[in-house]
Design brief:
Blueprint lengths: L2 H20 L7 H5 L2 H15 L3 H25 L10 H21 L2 H15 L5 H13 L4 H15 L2 H5 L4 H11 L8 H5 L11 H21 L5
């Protein structure tokens, strides 16, 4: 599948995930499919890092939309205080992810560790306080360092994902009820491994490529969250 189709699928899954987050009573599987979304976009974030003509403009565009998202959500939270507050801002996670990759690229080319290393560490620390947090940092690094080797990327991604989500510690509890609650109800984050099904199906082609496709996600992400937040006022 090409990039455009995969992003459309991820956006659809994103709606399911956020419906479950902001509106109660949604089917149990809504958050499950939502776990595959962020890694897909992080994968394409790394692809964008390699294919963009101007990485600085790419970085600034992400920061610009992070500001738009933050301001819009702040205003909506003031207007609709009864709804679930919107704290999401994946654009900030993505912007810091690109800044992190740019620092790695700078280190490779300049060997200036006195400047590059502190910037690299700073981007990681700041990323921990964004929506994607540690999952975003690790996923982006995996997609960056193992780009071009699907087998190694898959093995490392699956193992790291299961470890950082506490999958192994949970299944070793030998309490079937606790295992089920932790893995499927409390925190199904480990299901992010299934994003590999979509990532590995990527055929390297962009698909639809125009201004509409370029800015679709930038507009869709905040818009669908704001709409769902407004709907939550009427659906309890």
């Amino acid at each position: 599948m090409n990039a455009f189709i995969l992003k459309i699928i991820a956006m659809l899954f994103m709606v399911f995930d956020h419906l479950a987050s902001y509106i109660g009573g949604m089917p149990i599987w809504f958050p499950w499919v939502g776990r595959v979304v962020a890694p897909i976009f992080m994968f394409f974030l790394v692809e964008g890092f390699y294919h963009t003509r101007d990485r600085k403009k790419y970085l600034l565009r992400l920061f610009k939309w992070a500001i738009i998202m933050a301001l819009g959500s702040f205003i909506l939270n003031l207007i609709v205080p009864s709804s679930e507050p919107i704290n999401n801002n994946i654009f900030l996670s993505f912007a810091l992810g690109i800044a992190m990759l740019m620092s790695i690229d700078y280190l490779k080319k300049s060997k200036n560790y006195m400047v590059g290393v502190p910037i690299f560490i700073l981007t990681i620390v700041l990323s921990f306080f964004t929506e994607a947090s540690i999952f975003g940092v690790i996923s982006i690094l995996i997609f960056y360092f193992f780009r071009g080797n699907k087998f190694k990327l898959s093995i490392v991604y699956i193992m790291v994902s299961l470890i950082i989500t506490g999958f192994f510690s949970t299944i070793l509890s030998f309490d079937s009820k606790e295992i089920y609650n932790n893995l499927f109800l409390f925190d199904p984050q480990w299901m992010q491994i299934f994003s590999l099904i979509f990532i590995l199906s990527y055929n390297g082609k962009r698909g639809l490529n125009n201004k509409f496709s370029k800015y679709l996600f930038y507009i869709f992400y905040p818009a669908h969250l704001w709409i769902i937040s407004l709907l939550s006022m009427f659906i309890k």
